[in-house]
């Protein structure tokens, strides 16, 4: 159950990271509240996941999910550049996440 919790924690990390953009420096109350809720959910789920997973693996996967998801949504939602190099490096992070899952007995 730890891996699904960790993945969900990563999804909430994407949510709070994107929420930071919408909150305009935490100056808009509704997006700021959503950002805070997503941050709390992400941390609680991460804390639960590390009860059964090594902290180094869990943290790397959690931040990796957040990085891949946030960078991808930045391209889609905020017209950030989708260069070949950028997409390649995002893919490398994704390969690292999958690799950590398999070498950590998560399959």
Automatic annotation (TrEMBL):
The chain crosses the membrane at residues 33-50, 57-78, 84-103. The keyword Cell inner membrane does not apply. GO terms for cellular component: plasma membrane. One of its GO terms (molecular function) is transmembrane transporter activity. It comes from the Archaea. Keywords: Cell membrane, Membrane, Transmembrane, Transmembrane helix, Transport. It is found in: Cell membrane. InterPro entries: EmrE-like, Small_drug/metabolite_transptr, Small_multidrug_res. Coiled coil: none annotated. It is a multi-pass membrane protein. The keyword Transmembrane helix applies. This is Quaternary ammonium compound-resistance protein SugE. It comes from Halopenitus persicus.
